[in-house]
Amino acid sequence: MKAHIFTLALALPVILGTTSAYAERGSDGDLKILSWQAISTLNPYLSGGTKEQYASSVVLEPLARYDETGKIVPALAETIPSVENGGISKDLMSITWKLKSGIKWSDGTDFTADDVAFTWQYCTAPGGGCAAASYFDQVAKVEAQDPLTVKITFSNPKPFPFSAFVGAMAPILQKKQFAPCMGAKASSCTAENFAPKGTGPFMVKDFKANDVVTFDANPYYRDPAKPAFSSLTIKGGGDPTSAASAVLETGEFDYAWFLQLEPEVLKQMEAAGKGTIVASFGTQVERIDVNPFANGASLGAKRSTAEAGPNSVLSDPAVRKALSMAIDRDLIVEAVYGKAGQPTCNILPAPAVNASTAVNWCLKPDVDGANKLLDDAGWALGSDGVRAKNGVRLSLVFQTSTNSVRQSEQALLKDMWSQIGVQTELRNINPSIFFGGDAGNPDTIRKFYADVEMFSNNFPGTDPEAYMAGWTCNKIPNDKNAWQGANSTRYCSKDYDQIVAELSKTPGEDARGALAKKLNDLLVNDGAIIPLVYRGEVAARSISLDGVRMTSWDSQLWNIADWSRHKK
Question: Judging by DSSP bridges, how do beta strands 423-429 and 14-16 pair with one another?
Answer without folding.
Answer: unpaired
